[in-house]
Design brief:
Layout lengths: L6 H4 L9 H17 L6 H11 L2 H12 L10 H14 L4 H24 L15 H15 L2 H15 L21 H10 L2 H10 L3
Helix pairs in contact: 2-3, 2-5, 4-6, 5-6, 5-7, 7-8, 7-9, 8-9
């Protein structure tokens, strides 16, 4: 189903960038900078921007957009992974305002997590292209969220999928590590996903025989 309307009406929390995931990523960046550098000149403007976006009404609008028929694959997996990364950042922020934003985001966070949990077991082969749709980069972000959120089912699923997809990779040629049209190379993110789940010695052994 397609709806003709302005982005601000369709996705009232995350709009204004070329694509939805870029807006989500920008919000994550604001949250991270404001959390890590609370006394910086940009901290208060960042908080104000987050407060404008992450209210109950805006995020309820985002959830309605997601739940409209025909959008099961919307922003999967890249944008979904960044939404969870934003949620993880807010969970890490010991601040009353951030806790309120995290609570407002929780219904959309749950919807996104459920979509990934439904989709990943069906994905027989990893998506290896050097674009947003590749699997490896998203798996790393989702794993970060699962650890922060204490979601053991998601953590185990991501670790299982990463092992299934990438532990058998050997002799990956360096030439395949060039991105296609964005800065998302197809080979290197495999290491970043496996780094999160393997013991140091096992990861070192993997790197000597698999992708660069």
């Amino acid at each position: 189903m397609r709806t003709l309307a302005r982005p601000r009406a369709l996705t009232p929390a995350f709009y204004g960038c070329y694509d939805w995931h870029s807006s989500v990523h920008a919000h994550w960046l604001l949250a991270r900078l404001a959390r890590l550098y609370p006394d910086a000149p940009f901290a208060n403007p960042a908080r104000a921007a987050l407060d404008r976006s992450l209210g109950d009404a805006n995020l309820a609008g985002e959830l309605r957009y997601f739940q409209t028929p025909g959008r099961a694959s919307f922003e999967r997996p890249y944008g979904l992974a960044w939404l969870l990364q934003l949620a993880a950042e807010l969970r890490a922020w010991d601040d009353p305002q951030a806790k309120r934003w995290a609570a407002s985001l929780a219904p959309l966070e749950s919807e996104v997590a459920q979509r990934l949990q439904t989709w990943l077991p069906k994905l027989r082969y990893p998506i290896r292209v050097g674009e947003h749709s590749q699997t490896a980069f998203a798996l790393g972000l989702v794993h970060d969220w699962a650890v922060r959120a204490g979601d053991e089912n998601m953590r185990r699923l991501v670790e299982d999928r990463a092992r299934f997809y990438y532990l058998g990779d050997v002799s990956c040629p360096l030439g395949t590590n060039r991105p296609a049209r964005i800065s998302c190379p197809p080979a290197s993110p495999r290491r970043t996903s496996l780094r999160r789940i393997l013991a140091p010695a096992a990861f070192a052994d993997c790197c000597t025989s698999s992708c660069p």
